[in-house]
Amino acid sequence: MRKIIVLLALLLLFSLPVSAQNEGKIFVWLRIGESVTIDTYTIKVVDVDKDFTKALIQVYRYGLLYRMGTISFNEGLMVDDIQIYLQDSFKSEIYPAVLLEIDVPYFKARETLVLKNKQIEVIKANESYAELNLGYTNVTLSKERPYYRDKNFEIKLNPLNYLFREYIYKDQSGYIIYKGISNGKALLVVKNETYELSKGERTYVDDVTLLTLLDFDENRALVRLDLVNATYLTIKELPYFEGFIAEHEKVRLSKLYELEVSDFIDENQVEVTLYKAGNIVEKKVLSTDNPYLVYYPLAIKFKYGFEGVENNLAYFIVFVDEDALKEEEANVTLPIVNIKVDLPEKVHLGETVPLNLVITNIGNAPAENLEMLIFTDDMKYRTFSPLLSPNATITANSTVTIEKKNQSITIELLYDHDGKTYRRIIEHKFYVLDPEITFSAKLNLPDNATLGVPFNATVTYTVYTSYPSSFVLTIEGEGITYLSSPTMIAGSPSEGTFTVEIVPVKTGNLTLKLESPFPKKQLLDTATISVYQSKKVQIVEKIVEKYINCENTTQNITTPTTPTIQCPNETKIVYTPVEKIVEKEVLPIGKASLIAIISLLLGIVIGSLLLGEKLKNILERA
């Protein structure tokens, strides 16, 4: 039956504007005997089969029985313009119920909806706005804020600019039919009613739908429909708990009870652990074929799993006997330490995010020796408090740097009471985005260096991110070793310099690289330095000795009247080693160096020849 209803609805979409479709929706859990009232209609669950796959429905109008029918997961029930479907069931003695989907065309202003014992009044409404009174609070929905959720309801507005705006061609069948021009006006037929309109004129075709004629000629008319004093809403009544729980995540259901997905086996089965006052009271594998865990006063249903890239998630529905739960928690004297973690879901690799924690004892006994440990891959933070009284609160503020793509954080609480130790663990997984970081960096080296002699490499950098972050710079190269760390870790955005003392252990032209390995691996700059070899050489000194050779000459005593005998000078050249040793830099021989060496050798040869000729002349004169 439901398939037939859906097929008919799809066929009608080609001829009906939005106003003729059922865009108002209610999802509500009903036990046998409970009902929903919409305008003049009351929809009641009379009975449910033993497998909770069918429900007997009665529809009352103005207090009188109007229709009756059976719905199932495959068959719905249509009553006038209301469609009723069976969406889900909860087979448990704690809360035996079925989930109905009730579709209506719209929700009108000043209309009151009654969902069991809860009321919703539509105060004001149009196609893009709704103001609601929930009995305990007022809610305003608009294009800018179309969503609201609390512990009782989830409400979503479906805002539109208009319902319908199209050209209608003459005699074309549809929700609006254009019949041509009469007395200078366009003739339009809506639901067997004929309207004569001038350009720009408007009229109501029912109590909530306004028709406007925008333009027309002999062949066609441009019309627009607007929803006035009504709105499109999806209203969902919530169970005690409904939603996803990540693998290894622990969710507090009440002061006493917590639920954890201890193992995600696959999308059809998970292992769950139920805690009471921090102690395990139930552990069970739930599947889509066997989805229930019942521990009075709680009943838990596993719906399905989702195996994600970042997290494995399981969807649960939980109902409780609320009166029994309140009574149980009122008679228990225990410290119940609750922790609120303020962390973003989406972060960038390398980003430094604030970690703000609020720890509150919501129990009725003191927690003693409270210790909190925060881990990523190792312990990041630790705090200790000797006593946390009931209703007392402490805060802890720290930061976490996102160091890898699958970054998570674990928060562990330990505390004592009445000789027992209680432990609570919270794990938070981040959705890590690629870094958005801009680098400008320069590696500065001296022109050359000597083998084994240290030199300084200086880096100047500017780095920018639109969020607080950390980054790493490092200098790498072959043929070198370091006297100081070649790596610098700093925050972003920032700018500055850092210097690394380097010792070359290889001669030649060495290339050094400036890189950033984190958060985004990239080569920022390169530089080359020439390294010379150190060599010990012996320097000799030329010593020139001169003496007078007067052999075969008679020496007379010189008197003022007697001229002095002139003896020829004889020069003797002697090369004597110098004792000191000096360091001489030996450059790698390049083309220019080779030319210089050849020129030097030629100079020595020519000089030797000239010196030999001079000595020969001296000896001949002697």
Short description:
By secondary structure, the protein is mostly beta strands.
List keywords for this structure.
mainly beta, 622 residues, disordered C terminus, flat, 7-stranded mixed sheet, 8% helix
Can you characterise this structure?
By secondary structure, the protein is mainly beta. It has 3 helices and 51 strands. The termini are far apart. Residues 1-20, 544-566, 571-597 and 618-622 have low confidence and may be disordered.
Uncertain residue segments: 1-20, 544-566, 571-597, 618-622
Biggest sheet character: 8 strands, antiparallel
Strand proportion, as a percent range, falls in over 45%
Q: How much is the radius of gyration in Å?
A: 47 Å
User: What's the end-to-end separation, in Å?
Assistant: 142 Å
In round numbers, the mean pLDDT is 83
- Classify the helix fraction into a percent range: under 10%
Secondary structure layout plus pairing:
Blueprint: H1 2-12, E1 24-30, E2 35-38, E3 41-48, E4 54-61, E5 64-72, E6 77-79, E7 82-90, E8 97-104, E9 107-108, E10 112-115, E11 118-126, E12 129-133, E13 138-142, E14 147-149, E15 153-157, E16 164-169, E17 176-182, E18 185-190, E19 193-197, E20 202-204, E21 209-216, E22 220-227, E23 230-231, E24 233-237, E25 241-246, E26 250-252, E27 257-266, E28 269-276, E29 279-287, E30 292-295, E31 298-307, E32 312-320, H2 322-330, E33 337-342, E34 346-348, E35 352-361, E36 367-375, E37 379-388, E38 393-401, E39 408-417, E40 420-429, E41 431-433, E42 437-444, E43 448-450, E44 455-465, E45 469-477, E46 480-482, E47 487-492, E48 494-504, E49 508-518, E50 522-548, E51 569-586, H3 591-621
Parallel strand pairs: 1-24, 34-41, 43-50
Antiparallel strand pairs: 1-8, 2-3, 2-10, 3-4, 4-5, 6-7, 7-8, 9-23, 10-11, 11-12, 12-13, 14-15, 15-24, 16-22, 17-18, 18-19, 20-21, 21-22, 25-32, 26-27, 27-28, 28-29, 30-31, 31-32, 33-35, 35-38, 36-37, 36-39, 39-40, 42-44, 44-48, 45-47, 45-49, 46-48, 49-50, 50-51
